Amino acid sequence: MKTRYSTLVDLKKNIVQKSEQTLQKANADLNSAATALQISYDSLHSIESPQEGKISTYKASRTLVNVARELINHNKEWIEFANKQVQSAKEKLKLDMIEYEKYKYLDLQEVKELVKKIKQEELKELDEVALMTFSRKKD
Question: Has residue 119 been placed in a domain?
Fold first, then answer.
């Protein structure tokens, strides 16, 4: 049955689905950031400092270590940002779900009222038919 809330329920359902997709995307970004951080740590551990040789080799190795540390810091910031995005998406999804459930409940209540009205009208019609039949039998 269509009610005045049916279109709102459909609209809110679409909004909830979009919020769910946003949350999934934010979670995927967070996973990518975590993977990138792990790769950064692995690359830092794989850098070996030279034990002997020219000072330029040692400086190059030191530069690689510094770059790896900067990359680790960048990936940590990315994870913090991704966490904030996930939390924001969760909050938005929660609010959208509340709105959706509210309108769904109102729609259900209106459907119940319409069904109740229809049943009452059917009962009245059945009573009228019964009265007509009873009067014909009496005559």
Answer: no
Is there a domain that residue 122 lies in? Answer: no
Q: Does 79 fall in a domain?
A: yes
Give the type of residue at 79: I
| Type of residue numbered 60 | A
SS3 47: coil
Q: Report whether 64 contacts 106 (CB < 8 A).
A: no
pLDDT, one tens digit for every residue, the chain (139 residues): 788 888 999 999 999 999 999 999 999 999 999 999 999 999 988 888 888 888 888 888 899 999 999 999 999 999 999 999 999 999 999 999 999 999 999 999 999 999 999 999 999 888 888 878 777 776 6
Alpha-carbon distance 57 to 52, whole Å? 9
